[in-house]
Amino acid sequence: MSLRFCNSHSLYHLLLVLVIFCSISAIYAKANEDATIRTMEAFSGYPIHESNSFVTNLASSLSVDTETLQKRIDELSTFSDTPAPSVTRVLYTENDVLARSYIKNLMGLSGLSVREDAVGNIFGRWIGNEAVLAPVATGSHIDAIPYSGKYDGVVGVLGAIEAINVLKRSGFKPRRSLEVIMFTSEEPTRYGISCLGSRLLAGIESLAKDLTSTVDGQNISFLDAARSAGYAKEHNDLSSVFLKKGSYSAFVELHIEQGPILEEEGTSIGIVTAIAAPASIKVDFEGNGGHAGAVLMPNRNDAGLAASELALAVEKHVLESGSIDTVGTVGILELHPGAINSIPSKSHLEIDTRDIDEKRRNSVIEKIRQSAIIIAKNRGVTLSEFKIVNQDPPALSEKSIIEAVEAASKELNLTHKLMISRAYHDSLFMARVSPMGMIFIPCFKGYSHKPEEYASGHDMENGVKVLALTLAKLSLQ
């Protein structure tokens, strides 16, 4: 009996010694670890274990200078070829060049390192504590179609610069560098090429080649226009613009919705899950002209009526897709000779069709082509051209970026919803370079591409805060 007691007593002491030894070892290891971490933090200036808690508490310290942001939007709108309240700012024109200088100056004032590439994409970088890591990028465009508004794209550029300022004021230090990009010519106004700058960044070789021989409506070549603006100086090879896949760890674009959903629902933030990709088609019919009074109806080969019939066919095929996400638009319809008393001998249409489902969109395109062939045959006209100008694939937002934007919205107590973008953006092509996401804010009645385009200071403030917090989260990953 006493032997069993002694053995139990000895075992108890042995276990106690082991527990004390392990505790001392753990404390010693922790002390060494803390010392190592303190040394690393002192060397890098980056708080290793505090980063997550810092970002969690960051939301309450974010302060947007909405008054200055609106002032800068108003100032940028003065670089316009048309009077206020409209804005017209076309690639490489005098006002475009002045607007670029304005953006570069603001980047410099925010302490960003500024560079430009051969076509005028502008980059402003806040160098992070681990600059060797792929940066996190944000940005949009500032070019504007004729007689449009002052918020499309601009909110994503000036708002991005303000987001950097917000983070700097909060005391945040990025791990990955943060970069603001102003993309060249998102609008197709001058050379008929949408998202020109971001397409080149995505490494589309056919575009780089085509641009060496592309001219505008005034027969001014792209290269001559670029050089007049101070770009493409060295040679005709634009491949220097290409970015390698993975050049950024993430890309996030802030943008007005350009639709009415957020405003109508009273939702503060839209989190884009996918971008519907456009396909552009050019169609030409040729018939027989003649006097509007002298040629009898049964004897006509009217190219104008062929174009009109095809326009209705576009609507029919889009509606037949069965999806609300399928859309089609005949945005250009030109008749020759264009006289009221002359039967059109030629007609030209330009068709835009979009969907988040590439297969479904391409099926609509094929149905439009078949209709064009049948219409030409039935009306005795020639289908002289049916050309698919571009047929871009849709893009899906990266799950991790969606989650970061969603988390930021929640931490800021902002209502939000997942939604698709039916308008295309530079993000569509940046998705080929890096993981991508988009943040939408409401705009007045969904208006865009018109002078009435408007986003309130409150909505812009919310968008900039969500962008800033999202960038901070992604920077620390």
Structure description:
- This protein has 477 residues and is α+β, with helices and mostly antiparallel strands.
- It has helices at residues 2-44, 51-58, 66-77, 94-109, 154-170, 196-201, 205-210, 222-228, 261-265, 303-320, 358-379, 399-411, 427-430, 457-475, and strands at 87-89, 113-116, 122-126, 136-141, 144-148, 178-183, 250-256, 269-275, 277-286, 290-291, 327-336, 342-343, 346-355, 382-391, 395-396, 416-421, 436-441.
- A hairpin with a 5-residue loop joins β2 (113-116) and β3.
- α12 crosses α14.
- The model is unreliable at 1-6, 26-31 and 39-46 (pLDDT under 50).
What is the topological layout?
Elements: H1 2-44, H2 51-58, H3 66-77, E1 87-89, H4 94-109, E2 113-116, E3 122-126, E4 136-141, E5 144-148, H5 154-170, E6 178-183, H6 196-201, H7 205-210, H8 222-228, E7 250-256, H9 261-265, E8 269-275, E9 277-286, E10 290-291, H10 303-320, E11 327-336, E12 342-343, E13 346-355, H11 358-379, E14 382-391, E15 395-396, H12 399-411, E16 416-421, H13 427-430, E17 436-441, H14 457-475
Parallel strand pairs: 4-6, 4-7, 7-17, 8-16
Antiparallel strand pairs: 1-5, 2-3, 3-6, 8-15, 8-17, 9-13, 9-14, 10-12, 11-13
Helix pairs in contact: 3-14, 5-14, 10-11, 12-14
